[in-house]
Amino acid sequence: MSGVIKVLKLDGGPDRRGLDRGRALVAGGAGFLGSHLSERLLADGYEVIALDNFHTGKRYNLAGIARDASFTCIRHDIVDELPADFAVDEIYNLACPASPPHYQADPIHTFKTSVLGSINLLELARRHNAKIFQASTSEVYGDPLVHPQPEGYFGNVNTHGPRSCYDEGKRSAETLFFDYSRTYGIDVRVARIFNTYGPRMQPDDGRVVSNFVVQALRGDDITVYGNGTQTRSFCYVDDLVEGFIRLMNTPAAPQHPVNLGNPVEFTIMELAELVVDYTNSPSRIVHRPLPVDDPRQRKPDISYARQYLGWEPKVALSEGLARTTAHFDALLGGRRFVAPR
Ligand code: NAD
Ligand code: UDP
């Protein structure tokens, strides 16, 4: 069901439209990344319309901007026809559950979100000659056989496993974006995002950083899946949002997806030990079965972003974990069992 859940144009909050950067639509704007991006766009002088079905997004993610005169949030599922023919200058498509437990809960809807949702937004871009950004993912590389992963690597993805709804949905969306660009001349920007973390991840999100930090703060067992030798490279949310803005605003649209992520690689066991150490937690590290098709290694080659966007991450994992722990600490309130050092 669609509906405007808040339009506050008359009272409270700064109106920055004097800066006149135009109107941006952020699909998935109530989510972890979408809420940070919406905040950044408002600060940069855009009017922002967030579209979200609130599957994993939360109203309280928008608490800091809900009263901003230039912000509107509309409850809407992008699989369905858009509730209005919004006149927009820029579109950011971040709508899609990103955590394996969430995207696997309704895999057909996840796939539709990437495919039908992208078509709905691409058609909107086409009608208004708007620039459009797609949040793609390092999951398009699957369980990569090339390491680190450059954009030219085509990936190693299972087409019919439990992760396929997400991986293949995102791969199909990339195809759609570049076909719309070639067919209709639309300006598309596609980012392949590697594991990103930070404040506003949900405590029950299911991804590794939020799981480990919440488990450590609660004094619960820290659940390492498999033997923990699989690797990931963790990017702090502010760094990623800066990458989004640079990719969207670079004058010549790259004619291919662009990797955005932090190239410093950790094993999952190293991450668990870091979190235990940082939070001074009494938690034990325990092992649970490795999920099917869990990629064994992942690290972005960000040469393109460095050279053409002048972008690279600045926030080290230790600093990002400190900020993320502070977020979960506040969220858990009195239910927290251990104190940070
Ligand atoms: P998230 O789950 O916090 O945010 C996704 C948002 O999209 C939520 O607000 C959710 O309610 C909304 N949504 C989901 N399906 C929708 C639909 N059909 N219609 C409208 N809204 C819908 O996850 P996130 O980490 O903020 O991810 C944002 C985007 O970035 C996703 O597209 C994800 O695939 C991509 N991405 C994220 C990461 C990461 O590490 N955070 C990595 C790779 C790609
Ligand atoms: N993981 C883990 N314990 C958890 C959650 C995840 O060991 O409680 C592992 C997971 O198996 C994977 C890595 O951490 O190897 C990253 O998982 P996440 O779901 O965060 O992201 P993705 O697998 O999509 O990269």
Biggest sheet: strand arrangement: 1-4-3-2-5-6-7-12
What binds here, in terms of ligands, is:
nicotinamide-adenine-dinucleotide, uridine-5'-diphosphate
User: How many DSSP-defined strands?
Assistant: 14
> Mean pLDDT score, rounded?
93
Assign an overall shape.
globular
Low-confidence stretches: 5-13
**Structure classification:** alpha/beta
Euclidean distance between termini CA atoms: 46 Å
> How big is the Rg?
19 Å
Largest sheet: 8 strands, mixed
Q: Please give the count of helices.
A: 9
SSE succession: EEHEEEHHEHEEHEEEHEEHEHH
Helix content: 25-40%
| Share in β-strands | 15-25%
Descriptive overview:
α1 crosses α6 (237-249), α3 (107-128) runs parallel beside α4 (164-184) and α5 (208-218) packs parallel to α7 (268-279). The protein has an eight-stranded mixed β-sheet, sandwiched between helices. Strands 8-11 form a two-stranded parallel sheet. Strands 9-14 form a two-stranded parallel ribbon. The chain is globular, with a radius of gyration of 19 Å. It is of the alpha/beta class. The model is unreliable at 5-13 (pLDDT under 50). The protein is built from nine helices and 14 strands. The longest helix has 22 residues, at 107-128. β2 (23-27), α1 and β3 (47-52) form a beta-alpha-beta unit. Bound molecules: nicotinamide-adenine-dinucleotide and uridine-5'-diphosphate. Nicotinamide-adenine-dinucleotide is lined by residues 27-28, 30-34, 51-57, 77-79, 94-98, 113, 117, 135, 137, 193, 195-196. Pathway: Nucleotide-sugar biosynthesis; UDP-alpha-D-xylose biosynthesis; UDP-alpha-D-xylose from UDP-alpha-D-glucuronate: step 1/1. It is found in: Golgi apparatus, Golgi stack membrane. Its cofactor is NAD(+). This is UDP-glucuronate decarboxylase. It is a single-pass type II membrane protein.
